[in-house]
Structures are given as structure tokens and as C-alpha cells.
Design a protein that fits this description.
By secondary structure, this protein is of the alpha+beta class. It contains five helices and 16 strands. InterPro entries: Galactose-bd-like_sf, Glyco_hyd_98_carb-bd, NPCBM_sf, SEFIR_dom.
């Protein structure tokens, strides 16, 4: 949590009487990533070697994980992360997680460097980045499109077009500050219903990553934000987020010429298919949108 992750552990939910099996189903369904901590007892229960009355909760949760892996092996292999803490052994990872043929995360010490590989799996940002591909010299037309080295924040680029209520600033989601963000916080409803900006890509980038969310200090905590990414005039991503639940997005922009980042509050359905603009002001932001 100190590193900005939204973490849920059952020990923190003992404040009321609850159905723990339903709690487990909810967490295992909604979590972006699940950490499986290696231990002799959990391996025994997860591998079906324990008595039925022994560690019922662990056996129940492990069955769900095995079912998820069977349903979509590639997706769930990336989502379920086996972790070996200091003093534990790789041999204590449950058999169904294939400790020797898939990545495992051995934590040597509880420091930022000690958990760097685990954080890389969660953020998608590895320690060793693949270098940008150079220009193919066999195509004379490609020489004009010189690739950008490193990363460039959208907020610092020249904006070809933008609505007046969109500005450069800092954004804070769940206590994490994002510099070079694009913030929409109009003072009145006289501005556009949708805030956006356009930038020229020139075919120089491969991906665009950003956090999206409702600002932590939003006056209305129940609001929802609608975010869209347009690449060369086509919507490539649409995502809704609510206060306290920001998201991280990644969009392929390889070879694209123009990018539009758009944010608004969703329109409200009032009758049948009719919809009207929300009467509440948006307090939204793109958190450090970055092109590579």
C-alpha cells in the first residue's frame, strides 16, 4: 500500500460478521492480481492433500484459482502471482502454479528493490525495457518518421486542439500524485460537456499509458467519469471509473498520426432511449498520460 497499490487482505475485514465464502468469491473475481504466498500448509491444502476439515477456506479459494486457470490459462497465469517470502522455499508453491516452468517472485528482502520484479508484473513496466525499433532503411518514406527515444508525456506536447476546461496540472488518485496530468475541473456548466485535447503523433510512438480517475478531492464523491481514447478518429478504448477506483490503461498507437484524449461525466438516461447531460460538474483527470 505504501507503493500506491490497492491491497485487500481478510485480516482487515474482521470489523463485522460476514459470509467469508462470498467475500472470497468477490475478491478473487474483482482483483486485478492475486498473490499466492508459498507455504507448506497452503500447498498441502491447494493440492488437495489436506483433510476436508483442515483449512476449508484455503481449499475453497484454491479450487477457484484452479478453475480460473483451466478456463483461461494465459490470462490467469499473468494474473495469479506465486510469491516466495524470505525464509520460504520454491518447493512450497502449489503444484498447479507450475513453479519451475513459469515465473515466480522470490522476495529476498522487504525493500523497493526486493519487490521490484513483483511490482513489474503488476504495473507491466519491467526493469529492462525493450529498445525502440530503429528505422527500416529499405523504405525511403519511413526515414521521415523519426522515432522518439524514451517517453514523452502528452501534457507537455503541443495541443492541436482542446476544450477550454482542460488544463495541465497534477492529479491525485488514491493518495498517489501524478505530475504532468490533464485535468478537467470547470467552474460552471457553461463549458463543453466533454473535455478533450488532440496531439500529433506523427507515427512516432508505439503505446500510450495513463491513469484515469475521479480526483481524490472531488466535491462529489459519488461521481463517475467516462474516458475515451481516439486514435486517428476511431475510438480505441472507452472506460468508466468511479471515485476511489482509478484505473490504468494502455492503448496501441503504433503508426498512428493523431490522438484524442476525452473525458466527461456519462449522460443520464431519463426516458427510454432519451438521455441528458449530467447537471453536476466533472472533476476528472488523465494521470500522467505517456507515449512511448
Amino acid at each position: 500500500m505504501r507503493m500506491g497499490l490497492d491491497v485487500h487482505v481478510d485480516l482487515w475485514y474482521d470489523n463485522v460478521r460476514r459470509d467469508w465464502s462470498l467475500w472470497a468469491v468477490e475478491q478473487l473475481s474483482e482483483a486485478d492480481f492475486i498473490l499466492v504466498i508459498a507455504s507448506p500448509k497452503f500447498k498441502q491444502r491447494a493440492d488437495g492433500m489436506a483433510a476436508p476439515h483442515e483449512g476449508r477456506g484455503a481449499q475453497f479459494e484454491a479450487a477457484i484459482l484452479r478453475d480460473n486457470l483451466t478456463r483461461n490459462l494465459k490470462e490467469q497465469t499473468e494474473r495469479i502471482l506465486p510469491v516466495v517470502l524470505p525464509g520460504r522455499s520454491v518447493e512450497e508453491i502449489p503444484t498447479f502454479l507450475n513453479a519451475y516452468s513459469t515465473t515466480r517472485y522470490e522476495i529476498r528482502e522487504f525493500t523497493e528493490d526486493g519487490v521490484a520484479d513483483l511490482i513489474a508484473a503488476i504495473t507491466g513496466e519491467g526493469r529492462h525495457k525493450m529498445p525502440e525499433r530503429g528505422i527500416w532503411r529499405g523504405n525511403a518514406q519511413a526515414i521521415a518518421a523519426t522515432p522518439v527515444t524514451g517517453a514523452l508525456t502528452v501534457a507537455r506536447m503541443h495541443w492541436l486542439l482542446s476544450t477550454p476546461d482542460v488544463r495541465l496540472g497534477d492529479a491525485v488518485f488514491e493518495g498517489v500524485r501524478y505530475a504532468d496530468s490533464i485535468v478537467m475541473r470547470p467552474s460552471s456548466m457553461s463549458t463543453e460537456a466533454i473535455g478533450f485535447l488532440d496531439v500529433d503523433l506523427g507515427g512516432r510512438f508505439q503505446t500510450m499509458r495513463s491513469a484515469i480517475g475521479v480526483l481524490d478531492d472531488a466535491s462529489e464523491r459519488s461521481q463517475v467519469g467516462l474516458f475515451r481514447v481516439h486514435v486517428d478518429g476511431v475510438v480505441q478504448l472507452q472506460r468508466q471509473v468511479s471515485h476511489g477506483k482509478p484505473d490504468l490503461i494502455k492503448v496501441d498507437v503504433a503508426g498512428a498520426l493523431r490522438l484524442r484524449l476525452e473525458m466527461s461525466r456519462p449522460w443520464i438516461t431519463v426516458a427510454g432511449d432519451l438521455a441528458e447531460r449530467s447537471s453536476r460538474l466533472p472533476e476528472l483527470a488523465w494521470g500522467t498520460p505517456t507515449l512511448r
